[in-house]
Amino acid sequence: MTHTASKKHPEPVASAGSAVRQGTAPGPAAHPATHPRTPPAAGRVRRLPRRWRKAILTFHVTVAVGWVGIEIVQLLLGLIGLSTDDAGLVRATHVVMEILGIELIAVIAWTTLLTGLLLATATQCGLLKQYWIVTKLVVNIALMLNGHFFLQHWLRQQAEAGKATESLSLQLVISIGTALVMLVSATALSVYKPWGKTRRGRRPAPKSSCGPAHPPHGSSV
Ligand code: HEM
Question: Cα(131) to centroid of ligand 1, in Å?
Fold first, then answer.
């Protein structure tokens, strides 16, 4: 009576089904009859369906790299403002820098942070499991604090003063240049995924799709 066995153990069938729906079932070997339950030691499975993960990743990368682009434009405008004597041109650069630096960057920074948090917490990556993710989180927050407490204030000052002082413009260019270096570093971290796992990430877990593409030399993984 094979059907009585399945009646006695209805749970495994349901959990395997949800794993398949989530795209986390490891294949035929995970058939409920042979692997009735994922052992707790195997850790939590990825919670975000694969197509959602890809869609959010696409959005995250678009917004994050867009942020890099805006900082490049800001830096160029700052340098133009510093190097020209044309008062009209200087004024125009200040107005555009203010719009980009106050209105747009805040939205972009928040969107990058929120999509990054979603990707990290709803997938195998984990928020505090890999050093490169923790570092990007710190970079993102540091850039937002710098933008909120310093950059926005200086940009307003620069836009209000018809002709900003050279030291204020220089201060802005240095600050924007530093932000750009930090953002490019965050992008490189996302691609190289260096430094391995944190202590929390070293706990037993299913094979992660979040680590470096090529494991370090000598590693059997
Ligand atoms: C500081 C600005 C940021 C930039 C420029 C940035 C850039 C990127 C890029 C280019 C990728 C694609 C990497 C790849 O698929 O090879 C990526 C993926 C990712 N990012 Fe960010 N990111 C930023 C902030 C964050 C933050 C704050 C978090 C989390 C707290 C985060 C978490 C992630 C995660 C989990 C992935 C997916 C990795 C994977 O699934 O392979 N990012 N990011």
Answer: 12
CB–CB of 100/73 below 8 Å? yes
φ, ψ for residue 203, nearest 5 deg:
-65, 150
Q: Cα separation of 60 and 67, whole Å?
A: 11
Ligand 1 atom nearest 141 alpha carbon: 27
Which residues have C-beta within 8 Å of that of residue 117, sequence separation ≥ 6?
127, 137
pLDDT digits (tens, 9 = 90+) for 121-173: 998 888 999 999 999 999 999 999 999 888 888 888 888 876 667 888 899 99
Kindly report whether the global pTM for this prediction surpasses the value 0.85: no
Question: In whole angstroms, what is the distance from residue 115 CA to residue 7 CA?
Answer: 42
Name the β-bridge partners of 197.
130
Non-local CB neighbours of 158 within 8 Å, separated by 6+ positions: 94, 97, 98, 164, 168, 169, 172
Instruction: Tell me 209's DSSP state.
Output: S
Tell me, using a 6 A CB cutoff, whether residue 191 lines ligand 1. yes
**Cross-strand bridge partners of residue 128:** none
